[in-house]
Amino acid sequence: MPALAVLPAAQDGEPLPSLAPMLDRVTPAVVNIATESHIELQLNPLFNDPFFRRFFNVPDRPLRRKTQSLGSGVIVDAARGLVLTNNHVIANADEITVNLRDGRDLKAELVGTDPDTDVAVVRIPAEQLTAIKLADSDRLRVGDYVVAIGNPFGLGQTVTSGIISALARSGLGLDYEDFIQTDASINPGNSGGALVNLRGELVGINTAIFSRSGGNIGLGFAIPSNMAREVMEQLVSFGEVRRGFLGFQFQDLNPDLALAFGVSANEGAVLTGVLPGSPAAAGGLKPGDVITHFNQRKLTNAAELRTQIGLARVGKKVEIGYLREGRARKTSVEVATQADVTADRPLKNERMASTTVGEIPEDAPAYGRIRGVMVYEITQDSPAWRAGLRRGDIISSVNRQPTPTVAEFVEVLNQIPGQLLLSVHRGSQAAYLIIK
Fold it and tell me: Given CA atoms 159, 168, 135, 138 in this order, what sign does their dihedral have?
């Protein structure tokens, strides 16, 4: 028989390094997720005519088509049967089935989803389950070795390895982003799977890839475990994520602004407006302050600040480090919700219910002589957002009725049940927006 060139089990009496022992422990906690949903078919308008329906034997009830998809998930709490995955894996699913490594198929119950971070939690029967311990993802460093586990292309459980290529990535289209970038192979079907360190601890939930071909090119992204943990706890407790709100507007520091404020361009975010009566105002923050730290975490851009605020627990105090006229300062503010700040002026019009408005700050001279209300927060993909309204916009009238104050804006808005015509000012530009 010819000799085969293979690695020995040991070299000079010492075993060769292998990830196998760690994977033996953690792979039973990584599951395959199959979903089934139904979509309503859009028929030609001719088929709405009763004659055509009878002639072509089209039933009166809407036609629906069954769709199926595959993804991955991670058991993170064996006692409660909690499985972390991506929102886009189980979105609009009528049935969710979790397939375990030992061959069991378990029907899953949806606990909650958060499209803004692409995190979802499902629950399966807590019987003989293995869970993965969550690591502190804030301690990750570029160059750390990681292993991705999932179900790419529906082939079955697959393991790939690589390193962390970058941290705090954003720009993938979600409202709250703080992605881990890795070159460990992540492909379609890996979504919701585990990214673990060499100790077998969960550091991230595999979520997305950047690719022009649809296959892996070494640009994979995972949601950090700390973010996934915080979202999961709120979904389990409340069935939703209750977003923190501090009541200020902010933007990135470009080189010119950084020079004007005497800071570096990658040192936090500059405040452009503070809502009167908000936690930020109570904490003494003012437009022009440069936020550099949030709960001792150093910030490099506005996206990081937005994510930290959105994940902060309502009712808790957070410490904010900032620069004012070149001097470092700190303040402590209590996280509220948008509803807490605007509870005395509820909006009954559903088209604007996802929007928080406030008075134009007195120390914001850039807005000139415009009288109206400023948009402080707006939910992405809401009717107002889809119409083009954005944070920082000033609304001077609703259906041609002037709205110089918040009280007048709310009074006018609550009298209009239908379509809205807003006069909106953005910088030196003005336009009308229609919210249907």
Answer: positive
